[in-house]
């Protein structure tokens, strides 16, 4: 993922969420709607999440040190994992609690036009943010489905923003449905039910984010297509005859470590073997640009 593409999507989402959060809290103050309170906290949590992603992206750019010789690329994964925790604890659990309170102690909505107007505005603003995330993702996902893109993406920012924006839009529709049913039926319990549904949705999204970022934190290999390109680049059929075994590991979204044990021609001299290894490394870097190749072990 290009840094500019991810940053653009994050900034767009941050601006939208801050504006939406402010409007939701105003609507809550006038109407007393639990859906609006839950949605306000949700948007505030999302704003904090986007701030975390920006911080993680900045910290990941630090140069390697003797203590961290492979750099700090994985910091982006750590901050993405923190996002899932924030979304679960602040957004999801708070909404479920608030919805339960409203169901057990329902009360009529006051000035219902405030939450309806704010939710309509929020849906429009969130749609623009979601559209930006989709455009930035389309430039990278190629022929992958959206599910495959979220699961395979090594850069966490765009999948996180995509899921957040998608969850926000569905949550806004649920909130609008809860408020609308409360107004039509005169029963405030529907507002509480809508709030609980928002909380469950956020918890599910947080669990998906946690599972995907956990996998990245543990260390993921290169994708199937990248592995094939690397294998084709290593074996030239002349000095490098085959790959005995190979391991790949993403050190960060844009840095890939490759370690390979290769077989070389029996009659080659040490100088020719060293030259073959250098040539193989150059071919790997050309085939998969974000690659850091270790000197391959050789076997005659």
TrEMBL record:
Protein name, entry field: Cation diffusion facilitator family transporter
InterPro entries linked to this entry: Cation_efflux, Cation_efflux_CTD_sf, Cation_efflux_TM, Cation_efflux_TMD_sf, SLC30A9
Record's bilayer topology term: Multi-pass membrane protein
Sequence intervals crossing the membrane: 77-97, 112-134, 155-177, 189-210
First-listed, main subcellular location of the protein, grouped into a coarse class: membrane
Residue ranges annotated for the Cation efflux protein transmembrane domain, each copy included: 11-218
Keywords linked to the UniProt accession: Membrane, Transmembrane, Transmembrane helix, Transport
Domain of life: Bacteria
Signal sequence interval, chain numbering: none
Keyword Repeat belongs to the record: no
Pfam families named among the record's database cross-references: Cation_efflux
Subcellular location per the Swiss-Prot or TrEMBL entry: Membrane
């Amino acid at each position: 993922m290009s840094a500019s593409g991810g940053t653009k999507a994050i900034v767009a989402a941050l601006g939208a969420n801050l504006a939406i959060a402010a409007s939701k809290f105003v609507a809550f103050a006038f109407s007393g709607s639990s859906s609006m309170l839950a949605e306000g906290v949700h948007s505030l949590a999302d704003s904090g999440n986007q701030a975390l992603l920006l911080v993680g992206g900045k910290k990941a750019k630090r140069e390697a040190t003797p203590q961290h010789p492979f750099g700090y690329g994985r910091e982006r994964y750590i901050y993405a994992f923190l996002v899932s925790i924030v979304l679960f604890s602040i957004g999801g659990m708070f909404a479920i609690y608030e919805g339960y309170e409203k169901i057990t102690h329902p009360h009529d909505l006051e000035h219902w036009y405030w939450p309806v107007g704010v939710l309509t505005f929020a849906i429009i603003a969130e749609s623009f943010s979601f559209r930006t995330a989709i455009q930035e993702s389309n430039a990278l996902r190629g022929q992958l489905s959206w599910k495959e893109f979220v699961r395979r993406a090594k850069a966490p920012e765009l999948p996180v923003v995509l899921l957040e924006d998608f969850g926000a839009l569905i949550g806004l529709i649920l909130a609008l449905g809860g408020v609308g049913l409360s107004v039509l039926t005169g029963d405030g319990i529907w507002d509480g039910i809508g709030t609980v549904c928002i909380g469950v949705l956020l918890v599910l999204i947080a669990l998906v984010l946690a599972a995907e970022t956990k996998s990245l934190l543990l260390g993921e290999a290169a994708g199937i297509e990248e592995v094939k390109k690397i294998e084709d680049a290593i074996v030239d059929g002349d000095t490098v005859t085959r790959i005995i075994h190979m391991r790949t590991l993403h050190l960060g979204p844009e840095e890939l470590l490759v370690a390979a044990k290769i077989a070389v021609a029996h009659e080659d001299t040490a100088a020719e073997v060293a030259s073959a290894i250098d040539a193989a490394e150059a071919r790997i870097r050309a085939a998969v640009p974000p690659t850091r190749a270790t000197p391959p072990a050789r076997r005659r």
